[in-house]
Design goal:
heterodimer, A: alpha/beta, Aldehyde Dehydrogenase, Chain A, domain 1, Aldehyde Dehydrogenase, Chain A, domain 2, seven-stranded mixed sheet, 16 helices, 38% helix, B: alpha/beta, 10 strands
């Protein structure tokens, strides 16, 4: 297709005042992030007891770059025997060296990890984008800086725990089995490992099968830090490996982040045992935009709420609830803004939306796109170009949806926003709460008292008021209702790793 | 010769939504003294009774959870006042089921004091367990506790008054509403306690007390999709425990099991009993002109 044809086919903003049509004036030149310096081995083994070891059955599975569909490396498949080995190593460390060193020294190891991560931040960012498809701007500016910040924050807690639990003598559980998702691979690892270690536990962690690369790179870093053997063990594999961890007799505590469906399976399989668990599960976050909201900021907030990380965010603001008086305006501005989003190469610094994490998720999102249309929704997608290869989906809006539509009720985990309207605050709140989930919600208004009222009525663990999708190690995160049990982050996140 | 007076016996019913209904099933079971003498008929609550109670509790949640902490504290204190006032009634209730006079007195005293203990926590746990979080970005960020919602609970079997009060007080102190199954063998003090609640400005539906059989109701307590948390403090049979846990996963219910052997032990009164039924909510707002 010639350049002129592209321009003719390009979308023209319908808003007379729109100044968002950048692309038809000039094209962005590529701004690639160099990736050659980040070493990727052909094959990665399991990290158990401070050593890289071959999987007992000798099986490996391939990991692809979702932006190119090319295989980048392969990971070991941990079976029951390997998980057992990892748990034993963790137990040995817990009863041995790790419990003998003082809390102060324990903290210093975590500080060391944080600093080492900062030193190698760009390398981790590049690998995260290659393995998981997220834009380099995000992995560089959000994911990896936060990873270091979480370790740095929890490092300081190690010798101050008695101040976090008045009247209690804080004691670790022992061996923690941790299973993390593919949307923020290294960040979720930090959310799990940092508080567990700060409180004196040892861990066996399983990264998601599509995004294990940075976890194994992290294992190399752990070796460099001189952490005692067996304190951190990393086993790779799919659901079966996860289930071996959950069901292992010598695991004292299970921490899981992932879908609500799998969370329920884990909760069920722990039934009748004395194992503790925390679950950080799915969501269907609503954003209430009131008529008195600062509309332009709200539109930016919505873009960040649902298109950040391709919408692979458990707390994504995937339901827009806009007050009737400003609905047309908001939707128009949103469509205009959508047209400016650049979808493509995750390693290009201009990219706003990268690749959908895996083929499987690509198919899931596409299934929902079809379902939305079948349910009678009007679909709007930006007209941007997307690469021929790789798993890319244009940012999508569904209007004309109702509360009972599956696209409104179910977590899509992709760049898909549904738009509904409301008249009164009560109606908006009721719609926001009409979901089994309760992870995060947003509210946009210029009126302070309204923020507090609406915020207190919305049943979710996080309320973003006039902002969305912000994270910080000091800030507790976790869900109400079917979005999970327990909190991660902040002082409250320590409780997940302390005997009650 | 004067005729011997026939005393008027109380019909023990359940306590749902501020009313004292019989079981919709029309069933009762016999309750005996510790010497196996007939005491009364108690209602054998059914699945439908439980569902009715949950529906009513859910309806009461919004109002109760938005009462001020000060007001909830005063209401808990009022429960203590009413309990103090009805001392004799509880002495008569506890005597026949094996409490010696001194034991019954101690039980009632401890139950009254426990209400006062939690009355004092209502406007303090937020300050102790909430936080302002120093995020690195330009946002004001704070975490506060909010009640989990509807709590279903098995009252302790062997402590029909003190155990029951010790369980209800922290649940409602934190703004939750509850449906509680009374001690199966000795359910009568629970129903008399319901009369106390009914006299104490506790809004209808905040505490609902059923009588009946754990074996029959455990499944319904744990499967109900509008129950947010389930709590018990006794050592339940292994199979029942497992079933409750499994059913909890249907809607990710919080399971709160705090084994308590001795309800007189002051260690069992703790703000952590309040926070067991709380959710942490974190709010962000930008800071700027």
């Amino acid at each position: 297709m010639s350049n002129t044809e592209t321009k003719e086919a390009a979308y023209k903003p319908t808003s007379p005042n729109s100044k968002l049509d950048f692309a038809s004036v000039w094209e962005y030149a590529p701004a690639p992030q160099d990736s050659k310096f980040a070493e990727v081995k052909e094959q990665y083994d399991l990290f158990i007891g401070g050593k890289f070891v071959k999987p007992s059955k000798g099986r490996y599975f391939k990991s692809t770059n979702p932006a190119t569909e090319e295989v980048i490396t392969e990971f070991a498949e941990a079976t029951q025997k390997d998980v057992d080995k990892a748990v034993k190593a963790a137990r040995k460390a817990f009863e041995g060296e790790w419990s003998r060193i003082s809390a102060k020294e324990r903290g210093k190891y975590l500080y060391r990890i944080a600093r080492m991560l900062q030193e190698r931040a760009r390398e981790f960012a590049v690998l995260e984008s290659m393995d998981g498809g997220k834009p380099i701007r995000e992995s560089r500016d959000v994911d990896i800086p936060l990873v270091a910040a979480y370790f740095f924050y929890y490092a300081g807690w190690a010798d101050k725990l008695e101040y976090a639990f008045p009247g209690k003598k804080p004691e670790p559980y022992g061996v923690c089995g941790q299973i993390i998702p593919w949307n923020f691979p290294l960040l979720m690892l930090a959310w799990k490992i940092a508080p567990a270690l700060a409180t004196g536990n040892t861990v066996v962690l399983k990264p998601a099968e599509t995004t294990s690369l940075t976890a194994l790179k992290f294992a190399e870093l752990v070796k460099d830090c001189g952490l005692p053997d067996g304190v951190i063990n990393i086993v790779t594999g799919a659901g079966q490996t996860g289930s071996e961890i959950v069901n292992h007799k010598d695991v004292d505590k299970v921490a899981f982040t992932g879908s609500t469906n799998v969370g329920k399976i884990i909760q069920k399989s722990l039934a009748g045992t004395d194992k503790k668990y925390t679950l950080e599960l799915g969501g269907k976050g609503a954003m209430l935009i009131f008529e008195d909201a600062p509309i332009d900021q709200a539109v930016e907030g919505i873009i960040n709420a649902i298109y950040f990380n391709q919408g692979h965010v458990c707390c994504a603001g995937s339901r827009l609830l806009v007050q009737e008086g400003v609905a047309d305006k908001v939707i128009q501005k949103l469509k205009d803004r959508l047209e400016t989003l650049i979808v493509g190469d995750p390693l290009d610094k201009n990219t706003d939306i990268g690749a959908i994490n895996s083929k499987e998720q690509f198919e899931t999102v596409n299934k929902y796109l079809e379902l939305g249309v079948e349910e009678g929704a009007e679909v709007y997608q930006s007209k941007c170009n997307i690469p021929d290869n790789g798993y890319f989906i244009r940012p999508t809006l569904f209007t004309n949806v109702s509360q009972s539509n599956r696209v409104v009720q179910e977590e899509i985990f992709g760049p898909v926003l549904t738009v509904q309207t409301f008249r009164t605050a009560d109606e908006g709140i009721e719609k926001a709460n009409n979901t089994p989930y309760g992870l995060a919600n947003g509210v946009w208004t210029d009126k302070g008292s309204k923020i507090f009222k609406v915020g207190s009525k919305m049943r979710s663990g996080v309320i973003w008021a006039n902002t969305y999708n912000k994270f910080d190690p000091t800030s507790p995160f976790g869900g109400y209702k079917e979005s999970g049990v327990g909190r991660e982050g902040g002082m409250h996140g320590l409780a997940a790793y302390i005997k009650n | 010769m004067a005729e011997e007076r026939i005393d008027v016996k109380k019909t023990y019913k359940m306590y749902i939504g501020g009313d004292f209904p019989r079981s919709e099933s029309g069933r009762t079971y016999k309750v005996f003294t510790s010497d196996d003498e007939f005491l009364a008929n108690a209602c054998q609550g059914s699945r439908k009774d439980f569902r009715d109670a949950v529906k009513i509790a859910r309806g009461a949640f919004s109002g109760w959870s938005s009462r001020s902490a000060y007001n909830r504290g005063q209401i808990l204190y009022r429960i203590a006042e009413m309990l103090e006032d009805r001392r004799d009634q509880f002495m008569r209730e506890l005597g026949p089921i094996g409490f010696k006079t001194a034991e019954a007195e101690a039980d009632i005293n401890a139950a009254i004091d426990r209400c006062i203990y939690y009355a004092g926590w209502t406007d303090k746990y937020q300050q102790v367990f909430g936080s302002v979080n120093p995020v690195a970005s330009s946002h004001f960020n704070f975490s506060m506790l909010e009640p989990t919602g509807v709590v279903a609970a098995f009252a302790p079997e062997k402590s029909p008054l003190l155990g029951l009060v010790s369980l209800i007080a922290p649940i409602i102190a934190g703004g939750n509403v509850c449906v509680i199954l009374a001690s199966e063998k000795y359910p009568l003090p629970a129903i008399t306690f319901a009369e106390v609640l009914n006299d104490s400005d506790v809004p209808a539906g905040v505490v609902n007390i059923l009588t009946g059989f754990r074996e029959e109701l455990a499944e319904h307590f744990s499967t109900h999709m509008d129950v947010n948390a389930m709590c018990y403090t006794d050592d339940l049979p292994k199979e029942m425990k497992k079933m409750i846990d499994e059913n909890a996963s249907l809607n990710v219910k919080r399971i709160v099991k705090r084994p308590v052997k001795d309800w007189y032990d002051e260690a069992v009164q703790s703000p952590y009993f309040v926070t067991d039924f709380q959710e942490t909510k974190t709010t962000w707002h930008p800071v700027g002109f």
